[in-house]
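Chapter summary example.
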Amino acid sequence: MTIKSTLIALLLSVASLVSATQAAEITLKASHNANATEPYNLGMERMSELLKEKTGGKAEIQVFPNAQLGDEMESIQGTQIGTIDIAVTANETLVNFAPNLGVFSMPFLFEDAEQMDRALNAPEVRAYVNEVLGKQGFRLIGFFSAGTRHIMTKKPVTSMQDLSGMKIRTMQNPAHLAAFKDFGANPTPLAYSELYGALETGVVDGAEAANTNYYSKKFYEVAPNWAIVGWLELVAPVIMGEARFQQLPEDVQKALTEAGTQAAAYQRKTYRESDAKLYDELIKAGVNVTKPDVAPFRAEADKIYATYVTTDEQKRLVELLKTVK
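The structure predicted for these 325 residues follows.
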């Protein structure tokens, strides 16, 4: 090889390297409050990868885990004022801004995690939720999962009747309080940070949770009984401000919409796989697993829909979600 051809090859190599490491024209900041190893973060990192691929490196997402940019409430507000582009948030928090999405917090809304996955993948569901969110100035990017909720207790629960009189810690949600009251329990809202001590000292007799936090917070040490009822599938919408979305070029809007849908499906799958692994870990830890008949739980939960699903938008959303089989 001549000196000239060697120099040309070297220049081409350098140009290629510069191009590969060149910063994206558009960098979107995304916020969530989970750890970097958890499904929230894995889903957002996947979304960034897909966005890069679909835009040829033109756009990317910089992900900030562990509430680095603020808690969920602050992150949603950030999408409104433009300090944050994308936020992953528990539906419980988003309802403060879009009350009609309270539907996603209803007990036994889905048949199971798999039916939830199919429903959240349905174009008509995403389109309608976007319509609802759009009225509040938000854009739906995707639906993440925050797990299937069961019931931990100090004494075994083999049927709904066993919950009678038990003090069960729930979220401060009227529909959840009503559901557990109808299950026969004494629902007791309590700060999550106080739950371990409250279980240990008998302030409460149990709580509802997913495999993830039941295992990671070691609640099984003080509430070793785990009743598998799947009373709630927690949905975590991924949103951005509609104004910011409209500022993006049309090709980036299209790519972000596609990346959001695909990354959300990946995140929900990852969460289900993680949930299954943690279930195995709970068994190894000596947790006493029971599987009560869920039919009575469902029957009681159905009764509260008339009270907490009242607007036309809420009724339409329930109809759309339940018709996807």
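To summarize the output: The longest strand covers residues 225-241.
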